Amino acid sequence: xxxxxxxxxxxxxxxxxxxxFPSSLGGTISLQLSRAxxxxxxxILAWLFTRSGPIDRTQMGLSLGQLLWMSAITLASPxxxxxxxxxxxxxxxxxxxxxxxxxxxxxGPWLLWSINAFVVIVGVGLSLxxxxxxxxxxxxxxxxxxxxxxxxxxxxxxxxxxxxxHSTAGFFYYLFFWLNFxxxxxxxxxxxxxxxxxxxAIGCNVRSTTSTVLMAVAAVQLAIDLxxxxxxxxxxxxxxxxxxxxxxxxxxxxxxxxxxxxxxxxGNQTTGLRSRYSTTGMLGGNLRxxxxxxxxxxxxxxxxxxxxxxxxxxVLVMLRGSLPLLILVYLAYGRFLYRNLRxxxxxxxxxxxxxxxxxxxxxxxxxxxxxxxxxxxVYLNNLSTADRDGAELGTRRGVLAPASPIDDVGLEPLGxxxxxxxxxx
Length: 425
Description:
Layout: H1 6-20, E1 24-25, E2 28-29, H2 31-51, H3 57-76, H4 84-96, H5 110-127, H6 131-141, H7 148-155, H8 166-187, H9 190-204, H10 209-229, H11 232-254, H12 258-266, H13 274-277, H14 284-292, H15 313-340, H16 344-358, H17 367-389
Antiparallel strand pairs: 1-2
């Protein structure tokens, strides 16, 4: 039996809650579960904050500033339709970015192994359209709108796991990849490499704009690391041979498909950027509101009926708090990562991938991410400590030659489409 104490136990509870808390019962979306998830997310992060916070006075000011600014806007807003869900979401976010995580011990490797096993078993089952996997996900993780799972599972067999949408699933597959990839780089063990490759392969089958871009980035990162591990006498001949092959592939395969790739990212009325940022997209009403009333944010309320509360973190933050809230949220989030993570490469990665995903969804307002992130940070810090000490964790067998350093490790802390039916009411 695994026994955890103190903040480590809370981090573990938060990660399990974030990944596996259900969103439906018997295949029917439960608004009560969605509201409970927002409240529980805030409560768990408050519990962790009371034991490990705040980071410093500046961070506490940025955190409180978000809530005070939003409260002032709400009190001044002519809209009387208060959104309790939005209040819990921003309380959770404000608590998260104030928590000091750099001194919390990580749970043992069993947690990541358990997550990997779940991803592989359920992901492969969904990809192969296995009835048991489909039934499990439909029963407990149907979300946003009732027919979404029909498209994700029955029509396209996408391994969306507990995330309902292929966009959010693609984002989390990259997070799972990064955890396993960093483990491999530290432990140099073949099992970690195998987990990394399998997670990457299943993530490729998600086939959303987000997953396609992020899995391509992941594949390049893995390839570069493996090349760096080759002996010098093998690496350079391999690169010399690879260059003309790469040039031929670029000319014959990549170049003719660049236009298709651009069109894929641009999307249409249902996917990609056009479905969000065109005047007829889901955010069309939001963009019109910001254009017509840029200094009238809505705070913790509901605005006009044509507003949409998802699909872009940047737009939604502007809608609720205008430019001051935008600065407070992303400055606090960036500072939170760089003050907590010991490896700057980890901070760079998480900040960039989160902000990139904020273009198409709202990860910082999603309880599955804000609850899971503390585990990622303490786990990655444990790997950074192993890097520093030269420890080899779990490398009794199957050890590869270490790669050349490719990231700047700072050992001192450095001071998809959402639902038409909103659940934040």
